[in-house]
Design a protein that fits this description.
This is Alkene reductase. The protein is an alpha/beta fold. The protein contains 11 helices and 14 strands. Strand 12, helix 8 and strand 13 form a beta-alpha-beta unit. Helix 1 packs parallel to helix 2 and helix 6 runs parallel beside helix 7. The structure holds ligand FNR and Octadecane.
């Protein structure tokens, strides 16, 4: 009884999706040395065009946002052209694709862009070494000045315009998983005492400025957002974060975006300060279209949609293992299990 996964869904006047299965954003570290998408990436995305919506792997809005090798960008003409090949191929196969716009903040490393420092809300370093680059430790970031914050807003907005130029159907603002926007939203990473820190209104100011700039630039119908109220990746949650998201979610709801997307790897995780799972918390505070994610099977995802826990189901790792995920689920065929060795290659 998975029928509800295959109902078309109207997001707004601009966008209708052919089913409720969304490809989750998945960083694959496969772009070329200029951070341009390759032909292998074109083919990889084109093979997944039967999902209701593909959300691209996180894409850098500018060079100093880079924290992992070979993650693609959307800030040079070559990168925009490279993405046009991807969006054309997806559209030719009848699919839709959003670009996930990304700046890693303190998770960036000067190694990648030849800079002197990385920007973040506050001078609090992430502990440990970079994944896949074990010899590099994270640096103490430079707290962004007001002028630098203004420039970041402008660069997010420009990247969104570049995404539309490149043929994307819209963008998802990456406000999740401990990267730059999320760093402003958690007390663990934001100890500012100016208008960007200290209170929920202040901590939400920069993320809301990015949301407003992008939705004014390309239209709110084409703007989605991913958030992680539970701190679980690249930063630690704090009971005080609850008030930040209690304030932010109604503010986001007022802005009538295309959707809001849960940022989590496993939705069975419970957070004391959210009184349960992240999706449950977000559903309680947000009534518009919500995308759930995190270790769901077709059955558990379909059940969660039927129970009203969220409206659309994003699938990550199973779509790495099964390019034909939608077809297999629809035909009741067994899925190939995911394992981490599959990250070495784009199938
Ligand atoms: C991710 N995830 C992720 N999230 C995001 O917002 N942007 C990204 O670029 C990535 N990249 C990424 C790479 C890899 C290899 C994995 C496994 C995950 C998180 C992803 O979107 C999703 O939330 C989780 O994978 C949970 O869903 P599944 O895999 O359990 O269906
Ligand atoms: C966004 C880019 C990152 C690419 C690396 C993703 C690697 C995924 C491996 C799964 C790790 C799961 C971490 C979940 C943290 C839960 C902590 C309780």
């Amino acid at each position: 009884m998975l029928d509800n996964l295959f109902n078309p869904v109207v997001l707004n006047d601009t966008l209708t999706l052919k089913n409720r299965i969304i490809m989750a954003p998945l960083t694959r570290c496969m772009s070329d040395d200029h951070l341009v998408p390759t032909q292998a990436m074109v083919d990889y995305y084109a093979r997944r065009a039967d999902t209701g919506l593909i959300i691209s792997e996180a894409i850098l809005i500018r060079a100093d946002g880079q924290g992992y090798p070979h993650t693609p960008g959307l800030f040079t003409p070559e990168q925009i052209n490279g993405w046009r090949n991807v969006t054309d191929a997806v559209h030719n196969n009848g699919g839709k694709i959003f670009a996930q716009l990304w700046h890693t903040g303190r998770v960036a490393h000067p190694f990648f862009f030849g800079g002197e420092y990385v920007l973040a809300p506050s001078a609090i370093a992430l502990e440990g070494t970079l994944p896949r680059m074990r010899e590099l430790t994270y640096t103490v970031p430079k707290p962004a000045t007001k002028a630098e914050i203004k420039q970041l807003v402008a660069d997010f907005s420009q990247a969104a315009a570049n995404a539309i130029d490149a043929g994307f159907d819209g963008v998802e603002i990456h406000g999740a998983n401990g990267y730059l926007l999320d760093q402003f939203l958690h007390f663990n990473t934001n100890v500012r005492d100016d208008e960007f820190g200290g209170t929920p209104e202040n901590m939400a100011r920069f993320p809301l400025a990015v949301i407003d700039a992008i939705s004014q630039r390309i239209g709110r119908d084409r703007t989605g957002l991913r958030l992680s109220p539970g701190g679980y990746f690249n930063l630690e949650g704090d009971a005080r974060d609850r008030a930040v998201f209690d304030y932010l979610l109604p503010e986001v709801e007022k802005r009538c975006l295309a959707y809001l997307h849960v940022g989590i790897f496993d939705d069975s995780m419970n957070f004391d300060y959210l009184n349960g799972s992240v999706s449950h918390y977000m559903r309680t505070h947000y009534q518009r279209t919500l995308i759930g994610v995190g270790c769901y099977s077709p059955q558990s995802g379909s059940d969660a949609i039927a129970a009203g826990e969220f409206d659309l189901l994003a699938i990550g790792r199973p779509l790495i293992a099964n390019p034909d995920y939608v077809k297999k689920v629809q035909a009741g065929q067994p899925l190939t299990p995911y394992d981490d060795t599959m990250l070495a290659q784009l199938i």
